[in-house]
């Protein structure tokens, strides 16, 4: 075999990894770019904070719903094209949000944005599992998850800074423009699918059977549960850390608290590293290590020292992205067929965990403040460890 072929193959793999990093960035920057703008919406449209939060919760709620449908649709229309159309459509809808003359139109645009964006996360995992060799899948999945972390961070931090310098409408419009460019960068880099087998038509019975098969799988439901539990713990930490740090003795401003999202940088690095480690060491040991890192960070946040609290949140972020990047790649490895259906079930569990456990964590905050939140999150995280240990004993790493 000539040496040119391996070089060509390595170049293709690098292009795929970079393209999926861009896809992750676009998706999560568009989802979370309204989070720092909620007070601006209250002022602009004369609404209360709970109503303002719909600009984010409608997007994530519609995203969770659309993931299942998008995974099924990709079996008929293909992976790469659907991801590109989803990114372009969502960026254009973000532009509509920036120009919306009324609150109702802004909410409609944000809800549609969530529906359209489902075409990226549900399909990205399947695309990687089909196009990357098993020995490189973990690293590629880690880079994709790193892109989601970077996008989530930029969508929260940069938008807030740009809004302060200009206006929230210019900030949202700028994000739309950036993500349009990112979408075309994805299209230029991502090779056409080589291992995808198209299934013409949209047969509901076929998709229901595929989902049912994955749910009856011996190990896959435990990975779906891993996404549910780990994301639930992670989102709960970020949801209620702000309440703690706004109050005395810290009395941080909203802008200062927003800077805490810069800890996502550590998540980006952890995602790529964890994927590479999983390729070499196996997946259960890396998930267990991620759990240990999360627990260490949780203990640190129990301190009254501000630097330890923020440092602990950074450590939790590292541990979470280790777990998530490995678990999401693991799904594609175990699902030998209908990978997009398996990916959509994992992501559905992931976003439902964010919604359900994130809200349930509020009861613990109300009843026992931060220590109770940590007990709740630590319990969820220990359950993830138990799952990884069981999968290791089952020899499915």
TrEMBL record:
Main location: membrane
Membrane topology according to the record: Multi-pass membrane protein
PANTHER family, sorted: BLL2771 PROTEIN, INNER MEMBRANE TRANSPORT PROTEIN YNFM
Gene Ontology MF terms: transmembrane transporter activity
Any one cellular-component term (Gene Ontology): plasma membrane
TM regions (residue ranges): 20-38, 50-70, 82-101, 107-129, 141-162, 168-190, 222-241, 247-270, 282-300, 306-331, 343-364, 370-391
Keywords attached to this entry: Cell membrane, Membrane, Transmembrane, Transmembrane helix, Transport
Protein name stated in the entry: MFS transporter
Family: Belongs to the major facilitator superfamily.
Domain Major facilitator superfamily (MFS) profile: 12-395
Compartments it resides in: Cell membrane
InterPro entries: MFS, MFS_dom, MFS_trans_sf, Sugar_transporter_CS
Statement: the UniProt record of this protein carries the keyword Transport: yes
Taxonomic lineage: Bacteria, Pseudomonadati, Pseudomonadota, Alphaproteobacteria, Rhodobacterales
């Amino acid at each position: 075999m000539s040496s040119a072929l391996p070089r060509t193959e390595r170049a293709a793999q690098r292009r795929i990894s970079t393209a999926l990093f861009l896809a992750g960035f676009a998706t999560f920057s568009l989802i979370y770019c309204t989070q720092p703008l909620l007070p601006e919406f209250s002022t602009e449209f004369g609404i209360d904070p709970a109503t303002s939060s719909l600009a984010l919760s409608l997007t994530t709620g519609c995203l969770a719903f659309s993931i299942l449908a998008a995974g099924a649709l990709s079996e008929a229309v293909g992976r790469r094209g659907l991801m590109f159309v989803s990114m372009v459509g969502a960026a254009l809808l973000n532009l509509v949000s920036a120009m919306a003359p009324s609150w109702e139109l802004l909410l409609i645009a944000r809800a549609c944005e969530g529906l359209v964006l489902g075409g990226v996360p549900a399909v990205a995992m399947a695309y990687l599992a089909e196009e990357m060799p098993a020995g490189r899948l973990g690293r590629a999945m880690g880079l994709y998850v790193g892109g989601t972390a970077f996008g989530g961070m930029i969508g929260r931090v940069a938008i807030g800074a740009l809004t302060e310098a200009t206006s929230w409408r210019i900030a949202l419009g700028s994000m739309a423009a950036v993500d349009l460019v990112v979408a075309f960068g994805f299209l230029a880099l991502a090779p056409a699918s080589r291992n995808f087998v198209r299934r013409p038509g949209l047969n509901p019975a076929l998709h229901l059977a595929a989902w049912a098969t994955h749910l009856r799988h011996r190990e896959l439901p435990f990975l779906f549960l891993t996404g549910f539990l780990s994301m639930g713990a992670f989102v709960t930490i970020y949801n209620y850390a702000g309440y703690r740090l706004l109050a005395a003795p810290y009395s941080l401003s909203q802008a200062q608290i927003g800077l805490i999202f810069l800890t996502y940088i550590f998540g980006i690095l952890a995602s790529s590293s964890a994927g590479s480690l999983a390729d070499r060491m196996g997946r259960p040991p890396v998930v267990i290590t991620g759990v240990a890192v999360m627990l260490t960070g949780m203990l640190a946040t129990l301190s009254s020292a501000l630097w330890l609290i923020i440092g602990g949140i950074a450590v939790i972020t590292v541990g979470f992205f280790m777990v998530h990047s490995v678990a999401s790649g693991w799904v594609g490895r175990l699902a030998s067929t209908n990978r997009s259906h398996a990916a959509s079930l994992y992501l559905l569990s992931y976003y439902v965990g964010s919604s359900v456990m994130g809200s349930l964590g509020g009861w613990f905050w109300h009843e026992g403040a931060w220590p109770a939140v940590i007990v709740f999150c630590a319990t969820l995280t220990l359950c993830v460890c138990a799952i990884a240990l069981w999968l290791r004993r089952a020899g499915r790493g």
